Amino acid sequence: MIDIEIPIGKRTAKYRFYEMLPLIVSVVVLLTPIILSLVSPLLASIFIIGYIIMWFVKAIAMAYRTVQSYQLMQSARRVDWQRRLNDLEDVNHALETEQSVSALKSNEWRIARHIRNLRRVATAPEQYYKPHDVYNALILPMYKEGRDVLEPTMESILKSHYDFKQMICVIAYEERGGEDTEQLANQLVKKYGNRFYHAAAIKHPKDLPHEVIGKGGNITHAGRYLEQFLKDKHIDPDRVIVTTLDSDNHPDPSYFAYLTYEYILDLDHLHRAYQPISLYLNNIWDVPAPMRVLATGNSFWTMINSQRPHMLRNFSSHAQGMSSLLETDFWSVRTIVEDGHQYWRSYFRFDGHYDVAPIYVPIYQDAVLDSTYFRTMKAQFVQLRRWAYGASDVAYVAEKGFRKDRKIPFFPLLGRFLRLLESHVSWATASIIIAFGAWAPLFLNPEAYRSIVAHELPVLASNLQEVAMVGLFITVFLSFKMLPPRPSRYKRHRNLFMLAQWFIMPVVSVCYGSAAAFYSQFRLFIGKYLDRFDVTVKVVKK
Length: 542
Known about the structure:
Elements: H1 13-39, H2 41-78, H3 81-89, H4 91-96, H5 98-103, H6 111-123, E1 135-142, H7 147-157, E2 167-174, H8 179-192, E3 198-204, H9 215-232, E4 240-244, E5 250-251, H10 255-265, E6 272-279, H11 289-305, E7 318-321, H12 322-327, H13 338-349, E8 355-364, H14 373-388, H15 392-401, H16 410-436, H17 440-444, H18 452-482, H19 494-500, H20 505-526
Parallel strand pairs: 1-2, 1-4, 2-3, 6-8
Antiparallel strand pairs: 4-7, 5-8, 6-7
Helix pairs in contact: 1-2, 1-15, 1-16, 1-20, 2-11, 2-18, 3-10, 14-20, 15-16, 16-20
């Protein structure tokens, strides 16, 4: 069995090379149009045109997937998932009722699939759990968040269309958060705990050996408490689904019932994680324009990935079966990106037999907002550099996968590795090349003015970008449809600012997206690792 832990201390030369690889490739990609412009404006123009066309096609595809995901999300939210769970309690009765038969003619989302599922369960009922046999465990980590952040989260959970006597709630708080944090965690358990099958506030000790300061250690400590609790109650871990929520996360009311339904019907749930759609919309009206652009873009990114099974990874709030978590010893305590890294830990623990299934309902989250404009701008960069530090998985995947004793087929592994590397390289370079690449030959080589292709390149690039604006218009339209109601403290002209914000998207993409990616890649390149999870401050505007 392959050791799935990240190395501690000094890395091998091979590991260090792969840690340096993302920055090396990003720099090469960024320097290519510059070097080609100096050598041959024509070759530079061909490279830049090809690059822009590639991203033009991607932009159209992403716009299509965004619309598709939005429609799926709206359809999934309208389903009565608790009723479908009830059908699984007595499938024969459900199939016999006139309601289920007539439902075949209804427009309810995937109702035909539901009927097929009922028939499948009816033919082999011993293979499937009943809904009353399954528990949902919720781990809610907290550091120094206040009551105004955590109470709305608890209340949103309790608005779920689900039987809370089948739910376990663990509030995982940090000892380093101080006495106020401990007091608040216990107060929340006292106030809301009686609604659940079981609730507890679990303190994660500070400065445990071989742990970075981060969320992974906290939720892993809570997971081990949960493991012991299930043993004491003689509950089979395979009958428990564990969801991790951040302190500001508000799950859609149908999330837990929908998740339970999919888990029960998935006979291979040991090798699966379940990923809802993260929408950063809780406080979208309150945050500055650059943060609104980034939050909306991040929301669309999670929506798009729900339509790309080959790219879907554990991200932010996600769910796994307790039996699966026990196989991986919960989450990594050695990285600040424990969510995405959990995909790779599980992938190697199960010898490549592992994937992520989409749950097409949202988990609503906060966009970045601190006490002042400057602090908000800084906090946004800190959050993005933490996400971009997922480039550390490039070395991890190479070290665990490119070895003689691997049990994973080489070419599927290579495909995943290249997609991982490409995603981080594009994160760093794409917005810069698209914004400035077309002008490189003219600025860097006087001979470019003699080349018709190089001379017309900015015009061609501009025309392609204008056509690609169709995707932006779709994005803007959907962003308005997804907005929560405008708070009464804002006048109608706030809507105009919501529209005008999109003009700064190119600047925001370069100053935040590319800069954060290069920052994290550079830290990996020089071996100065990010070993502290910088918690995003959550300020509630009233």
